[in-house]
Design a protein that fits this description.
The chain is mostly helical and about 300 residues long. It contains 13 helices and 2 strands. A two-stranded antiparallel ribbon has the order 1-2. The protein starts with a helix and ends in a 10-residue tail after the last helix.
Length: about 300
């Protein structure tokens, strides 16, 4: 369908969407195109109406609600564009009511003991390699510590961490400029001395290679550190610590946000640090910490102050 190409061109060169979003749009719209062709023999979007869209929604029901929402959002955005540019007379989505109920899944978090275990394991391995400061194994441990410190210290997404460039790091490692979802930029201050030290030590070892390419975190080949490498690194330390729960980079982010909330940090500040466009996304953390809730109710419940003679 020529309409898909026009829409993707608009997204890339006019809206300047990220390559990740463009790839998702391209995959989802290719599936939409294939479905319309195989099921109805349609190759022209102007021929697609309410009934075809309803059947497409039914076809998508095999996927998870979050995936269905994403695929329909891509298709709806394309039809909105086509109507606005007058490639079609009427957007068929106007005649279709779609309600996808997504189950509320609370984010997985680590407790303070588990996050401490992971950090201790990373620093212990670094100490064990200090006798070989010229080896790549030592450099790798320094990088592991820097990645841990930045993930937990800022709550950045793994994609944001791996996309950081040296130019995004503030003077004396006092802040990071993060390019988040939807190409939204935010600055996160780094106050903790341990985080700064970890980043400084990493840069001291890798600066020569960082200077030849654009990314801050790099692998042994001098290329951008991949998101999968970070996941595997965390898995390695999790197993060393005998932590049974599945710990991912995003669990670091969830834990960071939850612990800030438990320290009575205003949720609006947490929203800003995490780069959430809507506070509704951040509010999910208010439902997470049952342990903290129990502690508060045990110590501060007003019933404790009542003296009743029975």
């Amino acid at each position: 369908m020529e309409a898909i190409e026009k829409f993707l061109f608009h997204c890339e060169f006019e809206k300047r969407l990220s390559s990740k979003t463009l790839k998702a749009y391209s995959i989802d719209l290719a599936q939409f195109k294939s479905h319309m062709l195989t099921q109805y023999g349609l190759t022209d979007v102007s021929q697609i109406g309410k009934e075809e869209l309803k059947h497409y929604v039914q076809f998508l029901s095999r996927f998870k609600p979050k995936t269905i929402k994403r695929k329909l959002a891509a298709t709806k955005a394309m039809f909105n564009f086509l109507e606005f540019e007058e490639f079609i007379e009427t957007n068929p989505f106007r005649k279709v009511r779609i309600r996808i109920k997504e189950p509320k899944v609370l984010p997985r978090v680590m407790n303070i003991e588990e996050i401490t275990q992971l950090f201790q394991a990373a620093y212990r391995e670094l100490r064990d390699m200090e006798g070989k400061p010229d080896s790549y194994a030592y450099m790798e441990k320094v990088r592991d510590v820097a990645v841990f410190e930045l993930l937990f210290g800022t709550g950045v997404r793994v994609s944001e961490l791996c996309s950081l460039k040296y130019a995004d790091i503030g003077i004396d490692f006092s802040s990071v400029r993060v390019n988040g979802k939807g190409s939204k930029e935010r600055n996160i201050q780094i106050i903790n001395a341990d985080i700064k030290r970890a980043l400084r030590n990493y840069y001291r070892l890798f600066s020569a290679v960082i200077g030849t390419q654009e990314y801050f975190f790099i692998n042994r080949f001098g290329n951008r550190l991949s998101e999968q490498s970070v996941r595997l690194m965390i898995r390695k330390y999790r197993k060393k610590c005998n932590i049974t729960k599945n710990v991912t980079p995003h669990v670091f982010r969830h834990t960071f946000a939850t612990l800030l909330l438990e320290q009575d940090v205003d949720i609006k500040y947490i929203q800003n640090i995490l780069g959430h466009s809507s506070i509704l996304t951040t509010q999910i953390y208010t439902h997470v910490s049952t342990e903290k809730q129990t502690e508060i109710l045990e110590k501060k419940h007003p019933r404790n102050d009542l003296v009743v003679v029975r």
